[in-house]
Amino acid sequence: MPITLNPSNSDTRVFKVAAVQAEPVWLDLKGSVDKTIAIIQEASAAGAKIIGFPEVFIPGYPWTIWANDFTTCQPILKEYQANALAVHSPEMESICLAAKNASATVVLGFAERDGGSLYISQVTITADGKIANHRQKIKATGYEKVVFGDGKAQTIHNVIQTDLGRVGSLSCWEHIQPFLKCHFYAQHPQIFVGSWPPAFPHQGQGPYSISSDACRSMAQVVAIEGGCYGIISTQVMSQAGAEKMKVADFPWLSVPGGGFACIYGPDGRTLTKPLDSSAEGILYADISLDKIGETKMIADMTGNYSRPDLFRIVVNGRNKDMVEYEDDEELEAAAAHNREIDNAGGSKTF
After folding, report:
1. Has residue 175 been placed in a domain?
2. Residue 55 catalytic?
3. Record's PANTHER family (predicted)?
4. 241: domain CATH number?
5. Which domain holds residue 327?
6. What is the pLDDT of residues 202-255, one digit of tens each?
7. DSSP labels for 234-294?
8. CA-to-CA distance for 262 and 284, rounded, in angstroms?
């Protein structure tokens, strides 16, 4: 279907974007929310209009599941679940208000508590303080499956329209999901936030693909393939954080460290100087969409450089509920009952 981008890839307006490299307030929902708001305020004061946060910044990435047996992890995971963030909550409302006060689009990575389950989630909050996109990582990676469920089908719709351009979002190893990326590029992202946990130089043990160098390369490839700007946001981990999460002696990690934040141009060039891997900070770049037009003249992966007559993907982006009612009358009765329960308990559904 023909598409007219507005703003177009020839738009010459220059604006500032920000990639966050910061340590979470481990296992502390209130502390994490307060720090998130403070970072939004700092980036806004520097003029940032789009701000990207790391993966599960609230309440931190649970590296403990890779390093320990379940008996060791269980007390940490219980605390982790208690400090995860619900989409409909006073804490999320305060973050949305901070984005509104900052007049900035914020992409936040967080551990989402949905009923009795956790998900690796992102919300894109627009400059009016509204959640324009809520998504869950489509597949938990490796030992993440101990903690997190798979994302719902509609999570593949991960690009939104803003006044400054189309903003997309990906989490961690979604950057190497070829079919997801194909669908992502077909939504014509102009800027994307790649949210990442702390990752470390390869220590000689474990797969190289988990190293910070490999993860950085994965993100750069998305910028090149998509012909879009990449805001790559990462956590860092201090010695105190490693001890709290019981990973201080895990040989895959080298703490303090874990940060590899950067901002890529649509041709893959790096637009920022790196912070030290153990340092907290915010990286900024001034960008304009006309650089995308220059890049896509050479290769547009869903346009002039595609062959859908040879290769295409088939997509099902509709959520499936665990319970499905056979007729409309029964469905409405069940919905009314659920609303009654939710109202009595002060719950909300998304």
Report:
1. yes
2. yes
3. ARYLACETONITRILASE, NITRILASE
4. 3.60.110.10
5. 320-350
6. 988 889 999 999 999 999 999 999 999 999 999 999 999 999 999 999 999 999
7. EE-B-HHHHHHTT-TT-TT--SSB----EEE-TTS-B-SPPPPTT--EEEEEEE-THHHHH
8. 9
